[in-house]
Known about the structure:
Strand content: under 5%
Mean pLDDT: 83
Order of helices and strands: HHH
Structural class: mainly alpha
Helix content: over 70%
Shape: rod-shaped
Number of helices: 3
Radius of gyration: 25 Å
Largest sheet: none
Amino acid sequence: MDRTVIAYVIYLVVSIGLTVWVARTLSRNGRVFLADVLHGNDKLADAVNHLLVVGFYLVNLGFVALYLSGDDTIEDTRGIFEALSTKLGVVLLVLGVMHLGNVYVLNRIRRRGVMEREQLPPVPPQGWVAPTTGA
């Protein structure tokens, strides 16, 4: 089997495995965060979480597929490792950037919700008192 094909197979297996692992981790741990962002609406948090995971898969697997092809033919075992390290390093950076982007956007939404909650008085007003004049 051609070494380039071997590198492609290893790249696909590792990249897809990493994408699935990161998506599952983000989904499992992000659900609690989403529930807080969405003020405890569990059904909405689950729906948003699922949509985020689907989008994550589409973008990352699309990138992995587009980044599969290489210009050079791999001639030796060292070339396999060099090609894989470059390709997998870029895939890991893209996964990390996407994760940080998701966390940033969700944190902005969460902050806005916290600020809205802080503007409301903890106890509704129970009456009105007329101001007294200093005499």
